[in-house]
């Protein structure tokens, strides 16, 4: 099984780089996954990541993109909930890349 080194400790990830156990996720793991994804995390990235994790913690599932964008719109306004904005943060897709960095399970339909 592939591993990601975080602070000198191995963390198990899938062949595609998805965290195998979302319970071990922390900010350092998020930063390591982001580096592997070529994403430099800003406060705006962290807002999206924390919202994705909060939804997962509350409902036990990854939010569908339509639902997630509605939540972001309610909390941050329409300018921070558009697809264009989210793709600027996560060029490989907010659902795929955002959830991967957030240490969440791979959403259905994401390769």
UniProtKB/TrEMBL annotation:
One cellular-component annotation, GO: cytoplasm
Active-site residues (renumbered): 110
Gene Ontology molecular function terms on file: sulfur carrier activity
Alphabetical list of PANTHER family matching this protein: SULFURTRANSFERASE TUSE
Pfam families per the UniProt record, alphabetical: DsrC
Name assigned to this protein: Sulfur relay protein DsrC
Keywords: Cytoplasm
Places the protein is found: Cytoplasm
Family classification: Belongs to the DsrC/TusE family.
InterPro entries xref list: DsrC-like_C, DsrC-like_dom_sf, DsrC-like_N, DsrC/TusE
Organism: Magnetospirillum moscoviense
Taxonomic superkingdom: Bacteria
Biological process terms in GO annotation: tRNA wobble position uridine thiolation
